[in-house]
Specification:
Layout lengths: L1 E6 L4 H13 L3 E7 L17 E5 L5 H11 L3 E4 L6 H4 L3 H21 L5 E7 L24 H20 L2 E7 L2 E2 L7 H13 L5 E4 L5 E6 H14 L5 E4 L3 E4 H12 L4 E4 L17 H7 L7 H16 L4
Parallel strand pairs: 1-2, 1-4, 2-3, 4-5, 5-6, 6-10, 7-9, 8-12
Antiparallel strand pairs: 9-11
Helix pairs in contact: 1-7, 2-4, 4-5, 6-8, 6-10, 8-10
């Protein structure tokens, strides 16, 4: 069996990737690494806990990842592990930088040291493009990179590390830049934060939604589509290349909130909370995904309405609420 190693496997996105691989590619032996002190928990893997192998490993500890790689000897590596809370990076910039950069250099050095030859899918972010103007959208992979927050700086550094190991050591590296996606397991992104508040209102625990900037323009994709695209990238994309991945539905954050309210079928009030505004907000996150689509033939499957319903249903189940 081919072996897969997913870094940060208990995290919000990586756990969905593990679920996708287990369900649609049973020919794979799925492994993952997770920190013993991670803020994520194994509950994200509850439905597949007997079908994946989780290794306790802090990627900032070189000896730990070296040991795991020596045991697993993966054919594929999906690197998703990162401190990914953008809002938190304004309060804990050194923690974000140290974690994200060190975990990546350790991973690649360990692979090189052991002389392994896996396909390495580095899962990056559209945040590396920074603030763009209307003339720059849709954003292609050739757009100038200008990260404006520490999280984005750390992700760009991770990406450059990955590409350095491709150029210098011939590693089979593929870089993807994911745009905004809907993910029920990630509470710090606006779509999930809004939905958790909506369900609290449905349950009578809250009176209104509080929100930050509603004018930011995003293209949204379902997390299930996003994780499938990572596997497709590992199978069909060219090594040493960068690919944008994202949805085809563009809207403001405020537009999403209105769809969510409508799907809930409740009269929901909302107001802005200044504490939720970022010092600098990255907007106009509209990708050109033609390079990826033409290379792979991939396109998103889930509609916006289906994704919002999935988000609501998942949060309701988590909170024990039947609407």
């Amino acid at each position: 069996m081919k072996r897969v190693l997913i870094t940060g496997i208990t995290g919000s996105g990586a756990s969905y990737l593990a679920e996708y691989l287990v369900k649609f590619h049973p020919e794979l032996d799925v492994h993952g690494v997770a920190r013993w002190h991670s803020t994520a928990t194994n509950k994200n893997l509850e439905d597949i806990k007997d079908q994946v192998t989780v290794h306790e490993c802090d990627l900032t500890d070189f000896s730990a990842i070296l040991s795991v790689l020596r045991d697993v000897r993966p054919d594929y590596v999906f690197h998703l592990a990162a401190h990914a809370n953008v809002h938190a990076c304004f309060k804990n910039p050194l923690s974000v930088l140290n974690n994200n950069i060190n975990n990546t250099i350790n991973l690649f050095e360990a692979i090189k040291f052991l002389e392994l030859d896996p396909i390495i899918q580095f899962c990056g972010t559209s945040e590396v493009y920074g603030l763009v103007t209307e003339k720059d959208v849709p954003i292609t992979e050739d757009q100038a990179l200008d990260p404006v927050n520490i999280y984005a700086v750390s992700k760009l550094t991770q990406e450059k590390i990955a590409m350095s190991y491709y150029h210098c050591y011939g590693m089979k590296v593929i870089v993807t830049r994911m745009f905004t996606y809907i993910n029920p397991r990630r509470a710090d992104i606006f779509s999930t934060a809004f939905t958790r508040q909506v369900v609290d209102i449905e349950m009578g625990k809250k009176e209104k939604i509080v929100h930050g900037n509603l004018d930011s323009v995003r293209t949204l994709i379902d997390v299930r589509d996003a994780m499938e695209s990572y596997w497709v990238a590992s199978q069909r994309c060219e090594y040493g290349e960068v690919y944008n991945i994202g949805g085809t539905t563009t809207m403001t954050v405020g537009d999403f909130l209105e769809i969510l309210k409508d799907t809930s079928h409740m009269d929901i009030k909302s107001e802005q909370d200044p504490a939720l505004l970022r010092p600098k907000d990255v907007t106009l996150q509209i990708p050109d995904i033609s390079k990826f689509s033409e290379r792979t033939g991939w396109s998103p499957k889930w509609t916006m309405r289906e994704s919002v319903q999935f988000l609501l249903d998942t949060i309701r189940k988590e909170k024990g609420w039947q609407a």
